Each structure stands twice: as C-alpha cells, then as structure tokens.
Amino acid sequence: MTASRPTISTHVLDLATGTPAPDIGVALFRLADDGAPELISELVTDDDGRIADLLDGRELSAGDYQLAFDVGGYASDEDAFFQSAAVAMRITDAGRSYHVPLLLSPYGMSTYRGT
C-alpha cells in the first residue's frame, strides 16, 4: 500500500445553522521569501462544506501559506459584517497533511489546525 500525498484541506461549518457551508470560495496562496503571494488554487467548498485538496494536485513544500475564504459570498445578507477571512500558516513538515477548518457565525469566526 502506498502512502497518500500530503495535502492541505478545509471544512467550513455554519455555526448559526449547525450545517456545513457549501459554495464558499477558498483561495490558497504560497508566500515567497519576500512575502509575495503565489496563487496555488481557487476552489469552492462542496455540499458538505469541504475541499479535500487545496494543493490541487501539486506537491506540498515547506513554507508560508495563506488561505483566503470568501465568506461574504456565502451570507444571504448583502450587508453581512464579515466579507472575507484570511488564515496565515507555516508548514514545516511537508511529509504530513494539514486540515484547517473554519467555523462561521454571523458575528464571529474561529479556526484551528485539525487532523
């Protein structure tokens, strides 16, 4: 059995409704040494609020990354308070996968490094 390729994944959950958040736009950037962002992928969460592989088939390498979530596009209220969320992270072990969930509510957000 071969080991699977390491990935960066996410799961967005709507805490107000207690359901997954589908159709959230998520962009993954890798930051160059000078801090300039390189777009890796722009994907959308599935019906279960997930994106299984934000690397979109690329190899994971050590470095600084940023996830950008278009949460304003998800809210049914055009005057929603939060319009976007960005999560900066440092990958030091490119031999493992990283899962970054986002928990949403109308006036709050939370994230953590999942498993």
Features:
Immunoglobulin-like, 115 residues, mainly beta, 4-stranded antiparallel β-sheet
Describe this structure in words.
With 115 residues, this protein is an all-beta fold. The protein has a single domain (8-106), classed as Transthyretin/hydroxyisourate hydrolase domain (Immunoglobulin-like). Helix content is 0%, strand content 44%. It is built from no helices and 10 strands. The chain has strands at residues 8-14, 19-20, 25-31, 37-44, 50-51, 63-70, 85-91, 98-99, 102-105, 108-111. The strands form 2 sheets. Strands 1, 2, 5, 8, 9 and 10 form a 6-stranded mixed sheet that branches. Strands 4-3-6-7 form a 4-stranded antiparallel sheet, with no helix packed on it. Strand 3 and strand 4 (37-44) form a beta hairpin. It is globular.
CATH level 3 topology:
Immunoglobulin-like
Report the β-strand fraction as a percent range: 35-45%
User: What count of helical segments does DSSP give?
Assistant: 0
**What value does the average pLDDT take?**
91
Could you give the topology of this structure?
Layout: E1 8-14, E2 19-20, E3 25-31, E4 37-44, E5 50-51, E6 63-70, E7 85-91, E8 98-99, E9 102-105, E10 108-111
Parallel strand pairs: 1-8, 1-9
Antiparallel strand pairs: 1-2, 1-5, 3-4, 3-6, 6-7, 9-10
